[in-house]
Specification:
By secondary structure, the protein is α/β, with parallel strands linked by helices. 41% of the residues lie in helices and 14% in strands. Bound molecules: iron/sulfur cluster. [4Fe-4S] cluster binds at residues 64, 68, 71.
Length: 320
């Protein structure tokens, strides 16, 4: 059993992972500063220099069949979202502009349980974006099987995104139309199909500290290359509209814990990160080595130039 942040670092350096009990000990450590300093040291020892910037674009918005309580696109939401989408030509232009702004990873994101009848169109779009740009391409099209993953890979996709969202035990309180296990199966299918993985969760859904720890452990078992940390941004018209946004200290502690659980993954602050305010700098100097930049799916995001300027001011380089 570890008795200090230093012990946890030594375990990771010896190629071991932390048990649930040890991770809990870390999470309950009284000092956020010590936890952040430890997470920064994990990052240094595992050679995780630089910060990756990625951007997303919705290719199918709203009218989702699924009932995820936290999502403005779900069947449970009455929030107004514009369902119109860009033409393929306009999307290629947008991807080129994103690349010119210094972002190297770009994801197509769709509402819905699965790609359904839109998959062929999106495969063409991915091939087209691959020819027109040097961006690493990602996609988030809901639940997929191995065959679909192979087709996405063949079209030029490098990474598949599917958030676990929260712990397996809390997930049914938030979504009844699909399961945590179906998401895990999708991630395994994507891996089998030759794609790298992006999977994380949302903080502020009413989950406990134990749920946050269990989600981190579930992610560590899968080992996604990228782990987005979203902060609930409660929107009017969604069932979680009355909730408050997560507090910066809680988010910093979670990111530090997950850095210990996922030392080789890119930990990426994503939707809702404006709630962090000035704490964003502490996150980037500590556990976090990735940012979703530009607009998010259903909320206005950050400015790419501003994010790049922040990295420069912190002495951090952009990474793929
Ligand atoms: S999170 Fe995805 S599956 Fe769930 S309601 Fe939103 S778009 Fe649909």
């Amino acid at each position: 059993m570890i008795t200090s942040v230093g012990d946890a670092l030594d375990r990771l350096e010896a190629g071991l992972s932390l048990s649930r009990e040890e991770a809990l000990f870390l999470y309950e450590s009284p000092s956020t500063e010590a936890l952040l300093a430890g997470a920064a040291e994990v990052r240094r020892r595992f050679g995780r220099r630089g910060v990756s910037l990625c951007a997303i674009h919705s290719v199918r918005t709203a009218r989702c069949s699924e009932d995820c309580l936290f999502c403005a696109q779900s069947s449970r939401s009455v929030a107004f979202l514009d369902p119109s989408s860009l033409s393929d030509e306009a999307l290629v232009d947008r991807a080129r502009a994103i690349e010119a702004s210094g972002v190297r990873r770009f994801s197509l994101v769709a509402s819905g349980r699965s790609p359904g009848g839109d998959l062929d169109r999106w495969l063409d779009l991915i091939a087209r974006l691959g020819k027109a740009t040097g961006l690493s391409l990602c996609a988030s099209f809901g639940l997929i099987d191995v065959e679909e993953a192979r087709r996405l890979k063949a079209a030029g996709l490098s990474r598949y995104h599917c958030n676990l969202e929260t712990s397996e035990s809390f997930f049914p309180s938030l979504c009844g139309s699909h399961s945590f296990r179906e998401k895990v199966r999708t991630l395994r299918a994507a891996r089998q199909g030759g794609l790298s993985l992006c999977s994380g969760g949302i903080i502020g859904l009413g989950e406990s500290d134990a749920d946050r720890l269990d989600l981190g452990l579930a992610l560590a078992e899968i080992g996604p290359e990228s782990v987005p940390v979203n902060l609930l941004h409660p929107l009017a018209g969604t069932p979680l509209a009355g909730r408050s946004r997560p507090e910066a200290d809680a988010v910093l502690r979670l990111c530090a814990l997950w850095r210990f659980l996922l030392p080789r993954s890119r930990l990426r602050l994503a939707g809702g990160r404006s709630a962090l305010g000035d704490a964003l700098a502490a996150a980037l100097k500590g556990p976090v080595d990735g940012l979703l930049t530009g607009d998010y799916l259903t909320t206005t995001g950050s400015d790419v130039a501003k994010d790049r300027a922040l990295l420069v001011s912190l002495g951090l380089e952009a990474a793929p």
